[in-house]
Every structure is written in C-alpha cells, then in structure tokens.
C-alpha cells in the first residue's frame, strides 16, 4: 500500500523517483505523483489517477522541470477515491511545501476542523492534505522543516509515514514514521528514502531502517535521525542482501511465474547455514534463547497466506516440541482479550514485516508481557525490529501481490524453529530429528520436480477458465493447503473458491456439490500412519457420487485415487508434514494460469496491495 520515494543529490530526481515508484508498484496503488524542487528553486508537482504509466505519459507529453530534490508517491486510496485531486503530493497553503503520506491519520477530521476555522480551504478529500496544511502552518512559525514536522507529528493519531520538502530548504527532504515503514538509502553525494529498499536498491545497497516515532532529514551529504522531539539517535546501517536484478522479471511473463519457479531456491536459502551435523543452528534466536526452555504455550499470529503457514507450523510444533500451539488471525487476536503471560511465546509471521494488523498484534503481545518471535522476509522491517528475535526467511524480494515463495519459506522457517524447540525441550529423539531434517533438506529438489507439472496444469486451467466456483478439500496438513489453493484462486482469477477440511464436508458443504462442480482434493500419502488416506478417498467417492469433477493432488504412484479422479497431479514422496510444501505448488500454478487465461494481471490483482499497512 502506498509507495514512498525521496531523493536528494544530483539534478536527476525525476529519474530516481519514477524508477523507485516503478519498483514499489508491487505494493498496490491507484494513483501516482511527484514533487520536485528545480535548480531554479521552484516547487513543481504532477500527479495522476491510474497506473504509473499514466503519469509517465503525462510527463512525456508535458515535461516537468527536473531538480536535485524530490519526493514521489503511489497512493492506495483510503480517504477519497483514486482521482487526480486526491493523489499525492499535497501542498501547503502558500504552495511552497509538498507532502506525501502512507497510512491513516485517525484524528484528521478534528485537525481539519481546526484548520477550516483558521480560514484554510481544501482541494481534496484526503487526510494527507490536512497534514500538508498543518505542516505549512508550523513551518511559518519558524525553526526549519524538521522541527516543524516534529511539532506536527506529535499531534497526529494513527499510522503514518510522511515525507516533505520545502522550496526554502532546497536540498533537504524530511521524513517521519509511526507504525508505517520508512528506510534510508545511503549514497555518495546523494541519499534516498523509501517505503522499502526496493525504492533505491538500483542505486545503493547500503540501508538504514528508521525506528518507531523517528524523524529523518537527508541532504546530499548528511543523514540525521532524531526522535519526534529533536533528540538525535544513532540508527544502525545494514547491507541489502539482494541486488536490483533480483527484483526484475528477468524474462518471465510475470513476477508471479518467476517467484513460483524460485521456490526451490527460496527454501534452500532459508535452510542454508541453519543445519549442521543433524542439528538446527539458529543464532537468530539469541534474544530469546534463555526464555525458550520456560515457554509453555505458543500463539501464532498472521494474516492470509501467512496464517496458513502458521496452521502448518502448529501441526509441526505440537508434534515435535509437544507444546500447545494456537493460530490466530492478527486482526482478531487482540480483540479476543487473549490470555498471555511471560511464558507465552507469540510467533508472528509476515512476509513484508509491515502488515499493520500483525504489527498491532505484536505490540499487544509485548505490552501483555509475552515473548515475541517473528518470521519475516524483509530485512529491517518494523515487525522484525519490534520482536525479541526474528528468523528471516531468505526467499528474496517477493514482488507479485499474491504470496508464493514466501509461503514455502515461512513453512521451512517454522519447521526449523519447531525442530530446534524440540531439541531444547528434549521431546524428539536424535534419529527423528535427523529424519525430519533430511526430509526438509530434500524439499528444494522435490520442488523442482513439482514445477515440471506446469504445462499439464496450464492445459487444465485453460480448459477450466469459465468455471464459476471451485472447491478445495484437505485433511490435517492438507487443510491449510486447501485454504491456500482457494485464496490464490479468489485473489488472482476472481472466482468464488472455498477451502474445506474434508471431514467437515458432511456437516454442510456437501450441499454445494452438483454435477460438474470442480473440486481439488489434496490426498495424503497412502503411507500415512493415521489412515487419513483412506478417509480422504472415501470423501472423494462421496462427492463423486454427486457428480463432482475430482482434481486430485496425490503422491506419485498412488493408484488408489485413479479410478475416482478426473485428473491426478502427482507430487513426489515426502513425510506427512512435508507434503504441503509440495502440494501447494500445483494450486499456485493453477490459479496463475487460470487468471492468465482470463486475461487478468496476475502480479497486481484488483483491489489488493502487497503490503497492507492500514488496519
Ligand atoms: C495472499 C497474500 C496475503 C498475505 C497477507 C499477509 O496471497 O499474499 O494473504 O499473506 O496479507 O501479508 P504479510 O505476510 O506481508 O504479513
């Protein structure tokens, strides 16, 4: 949601801002704009509703004077529709100051009333324009831009990242953040700001994450970070572990196709250096290691796809570490008055590390005295910084809005943690640990094999492109896979899709089955010791008897489903807990191919944002 770029350096702002906004497009947006201080000292802006290409075409038709200082924004509409007028930047009353914003200013109505009473008028419906006008008024009171920003942000409630520039301070961009992301990029004679490192990674891999309630001032040669009251703080620099090419499509038809294909590598990179001599080695847990022995309960919090990874984590942690685990959606968690104590470990899972619902849930857990661990894919992200410890997934940048490679990497990280906790608690024999680690280590190679089914699934998806509804069934670890398969299809192909626990079928959902209804079934291995396989095969027969078209995802060589399935997509042999890492891939490919067959944009589905930074 909302992409933010700031730049100070050489007279090439426009190129830097548009390049940065292009790399932030994946976050999801519906309008775009820039503000630049020209070499002559004028403040010029341009903003347009629609995709970045609309703004680029507009700039080609009528050039904007370039300069050495600029800010750029892609807006995901909250207050007011996606129009030119509501797009950012917004200006101060005297037109000398421009401001962009990500987040929601919850008390904007009250502040707007104050400004209206003071004779101010507004051109947009946004909360952002209120912040711009307020900042303009504070600037007039003196002390410079950073000090004025400090006086404004202490009055704002809600979540925000703000960037501003003023024509009277031509080589300065200031920024502030609360519960919303902002990262600094350090260059030579130039500095950058961005919602995430993608905004500037083509220029520099040296980055600094800005902490909660902090203000940053960048000039071509200096970076100053303070708290909201002007006291200087020393932020820590980090090196971005991927380069600009990792965030490029590199010949693939879509980022999603590329990211699905990168799953073997995403899992391998997440495991790399963390398995030694049949033990899990997680120096990442340094901040938590001593507390782990005393933990008596785990609550996993996450949203969407990440919550399905959490459900799989529950099966693994309970089996291996014999500890009670519950999984809650982050946005439900804190309103349920959860019972938390210093012996509760709250594990948050978030690809972006910026999901507002999950961030707020983590903060709630911290305030309640629980220990916190995050599983996160984005270095320096807010959730990671707030938690006692973080296990980074090393999936690389995930650009397509729908999560794929981050999901399998999250499962791998949770399994590593589960095996480590089992060792700490002495609940798993060395032989069983070794067997599980061998299974985990073999997943990248098996994922390569699953990817070979792509063409067959493509045919199936084309053939099914006019489906009105698709159902997904699974039991035990197959259930979160069914939920994920349904979510992928909904968000990419805009088809009604539901995932069910197969055992629940007879308790209601079987009424949906009518002749021709397509149903994907995640079939457990026939080697499963809990005889789940037989139960799922019975479920298949029940729905087939009512006319369902069965699309089974089953272990290679499982002949038992052949007589009842219209299509069988084989996956390699794996232990029960590890099957989901493989079974989910055909469902990801199916959703992507079906959306493609319908002519839809698989990287940026309608209404969705990659990083959901509002509650
Ligand atoms: C679905 C998807 C979302 C995210 C969810 C959480 O494909 O991507 O459901 O999983 O919005 O996002 P993160 O992991 O960034 O917290």
Automatic annotation (TrEMBL):
Instruction: Quote the SUPFAM superfamilies the UniProt record gives.
Output: N-terminal nucleophile aminohydrolases (Ntn hydrolases), SIS domain
Record-annotated active site: 2, 610
Kindly list the residue ranges recorded as spanning the membrane. none
Which UniProt keywords are given for this protein, alphabetically ordered? Aminotransferase, Cytoplasm, Glutamine amidotransferase, Repeat, Transferase
Quote the InterPro entries the UniProt record gives. Answer: GATase_2_dom, GFAT, GFAT_N, GlmS/AgaS_SIS, GlmS/FrlB_SIS, Ntn_hydrolases_N, SIS_dom, SIS_dom_sf
Q: How does it assemble?
A: Homodimer.
Q: What GO annotations for molecular function exist for this entry?
A: carbohydrate derivative binding; glutamine-fructose-6-phosphate transaminase (isomerizing) activity
Top-rank EC class of the record's enzyme: transferase
What is one Gene Ontology biological process annotated in the Swiss-Prot or TrEMBL record?
UDP-N-acetylglucosamine metabolic process
Specify the Glutamine amidotransferase type-2 domain's residue ranges: 2-221
Tell me the organism's taxonomic lineage: Bacteria, Bacillati, Actinomycetota, Actinomycetes, Micrococcales
Q: Where does this protein reside within or beyond the cell?
A: Cytoplasm
Gene3D superfamilies, sorted? Glucose-6-phosphate isomerase like protein, domain 1 (3.40.50.10490), Glutamine Phosphoribosylpyrophosphate, subunit 1, domain 1 (3.60.20.10)
Tell me any Pfam family this protein matches: GATase_6
Q: Where's the SIS domain?
A: 288-427, 460-605
Q: What is this protein called?
A: Glutamine--fructose-6-phosphate aminotransferase [isomerizing]
This enzyme's EC code(s): 2.6.1.16
Q: Name one GO cellular component term.
A: cytosol
Q: Which reaction does it catalyse?
A: D-fructose 6-phosphate + L-glutamine = D-glucosamine 6-phosphate + L-glutamate
Q: Which organism is it from?
A: Subtercola boreus
Superkingdom as given in the UniProt entry:
Bacteria
- Describe the task this protein carries out: Catalyzes the first step in hexosamine metabolism, converting fructose-6P into glucosamine-6P using glutamine as a nitrogen source.
């Amino acid at each position: 949601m909302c992409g933010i770029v700031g730049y100070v350096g050489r007279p090439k702002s426009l190129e830097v801002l548009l390049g940065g906004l292009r790399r932030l497009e994946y976050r999801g947006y519906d309008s775009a704009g820039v503000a630049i201080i020209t070499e002559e000292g004028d403040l010029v802006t341009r903003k347009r509703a629609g995709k970045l290409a609309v703004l680029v075409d507009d700039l080609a038709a009528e050039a904007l004077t370039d300069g050495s200082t600029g800010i750029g924004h892609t807006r995901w509409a909250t207050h007011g529709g996606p129009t030119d007028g509501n797009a950012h930047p917004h200006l101060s009353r005297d037109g000398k100051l421009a401001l962009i914003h990500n987040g929601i200013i919850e008390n904007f109505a009250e502040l707007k009333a104050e400004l209206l009473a003071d004779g101010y008028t507004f051109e947009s419906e946004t909360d952002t324009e209120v912040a711009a006008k307020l900042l303009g008024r504070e600037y007039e009171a003196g002390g410079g831009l950073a000090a004025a920003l400090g006086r404004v942000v202490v009055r704002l409630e809600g979540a925000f990242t703000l960037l501003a520039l003023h024509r009277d301070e031509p080589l300065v961009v200031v920024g502030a953040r609360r519960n919303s992301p902002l990262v600094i990029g350090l260059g030579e004679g130039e500095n950058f700001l961005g919602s995430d490192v993608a905004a500037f990674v083509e220029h520099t891999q040296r980055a600094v994450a800005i902490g909660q309630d902090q203000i940053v001032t960048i000039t071509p040669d200096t970076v100053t970070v303070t708290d909201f009251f002007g006291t200087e703080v020393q932020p820590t620099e980090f090196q971005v572990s991927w380069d600009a090419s990792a965030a490029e499509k590199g010949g693939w038809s879509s980022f999603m196709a590329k990211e699905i294909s990168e799953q073997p590598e995403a899992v391998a990179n997440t495991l790399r250096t963390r398995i030694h001599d049949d033990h899990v080695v997680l120096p990442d847990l340094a901040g938590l290691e001593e507390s782990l022995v005393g933990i008596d309960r785990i609550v996993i919090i996450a949203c969407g796809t990440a919550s399905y990874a959490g459900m799989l984590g529950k099966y693994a942690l309970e089996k291996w570490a014999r500890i009670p685990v519950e999984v809650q959606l982050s946005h439900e968690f804190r309103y349920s008055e959860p019972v938390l104590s210093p012996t509760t470990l709250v594990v948050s899972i978030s690809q972006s590390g910026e999901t507002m619902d999950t961030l707020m849930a983590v903060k709630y857990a911290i305030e309640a005295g629980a220990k916190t661990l995050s599983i996160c894919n984005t270095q320096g992200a807010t959730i990671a910084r707030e938690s006692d410890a973080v296990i980074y997934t090393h999936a690389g940048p995930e650009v397509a809005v729908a999560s794929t490679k981050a999901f399998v990497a999250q499962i791998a990280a949770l399994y590593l943690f589960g095996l480590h906790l089992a060792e700490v608690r002495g609940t798993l024999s060395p032989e069983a640990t070794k067997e599980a680690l061998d299974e985990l280590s073999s997943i990248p190679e098996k994922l390569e094999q699953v990817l070979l089914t792509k063409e067959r699934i493509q045919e199936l998806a084309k053939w099914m492109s006019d489906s009105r509804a698709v159902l997904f069934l699974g039991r035990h670890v197959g259930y979160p896979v069914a939920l994920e398969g349904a979510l992928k299809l909904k968000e990419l192909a805009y088809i009604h899709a539901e995932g069910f626990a197969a055992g629940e079928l007879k308790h209601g959902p079987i009424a949906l089955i009518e002749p021709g209804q397509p149903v994907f079934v995640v079939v457990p291995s026939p080697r499963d010791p809990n005889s789940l396989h037989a139960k799922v095969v019975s479920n298949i027969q029940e729905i087939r008897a009512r006319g369902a078209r069965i699309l089974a995802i089953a272990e290679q060589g499982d002949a038992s489903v052949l007589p009842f399935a219209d299509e069988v997509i084989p996956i390699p042999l794996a232990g029960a807990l590890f099957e989901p890492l493989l079974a989910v891939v055909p469902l990801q490919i199916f959703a992507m191919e079906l959306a493609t067959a319908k002519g839809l944009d698989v990287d940026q589905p309608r209404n969705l944002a990659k990083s959901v930074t509002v509650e």
